[in-house]
Amino acid sequence: LQKQIPIFKSAFFDKILKGELNSVREIYEQSKLLNVSLDGQLFNISLLQLETSSQDLGQDTISMLNKKRLIIIDLFKSKTGSDRVYFHNIDHNKIALLIIHNMRDLLDFKIYISEYIDILNNTLNDNHYRNVIWSIGGIYESPIDISRSYAEAIELLNYKKIQRNDDILYYTDMPQTSEFYYFPDDIQRRLSNYTKSGESEYAKELLNEIYVENLFKRQISPFMASALINDLWCTLFRLLDQDPFDDPEFINKIQELAVQQEGMNLNDRFETCIDTYYNVIGKFHSHKNSHNTRLVEQILKFINENYHDMDLSLTLLADEFNISDVYLSTFFKEQTGENFYTYLQELRIQNAKDLLKQTDMPVAEIVSTIGYSSYNTFAKAFKRIVGMTATDYRTQQ
Question: Is the separation of the CB atoms in 41 and 35 below 8 Å?
Answer without folding.
Answer: no
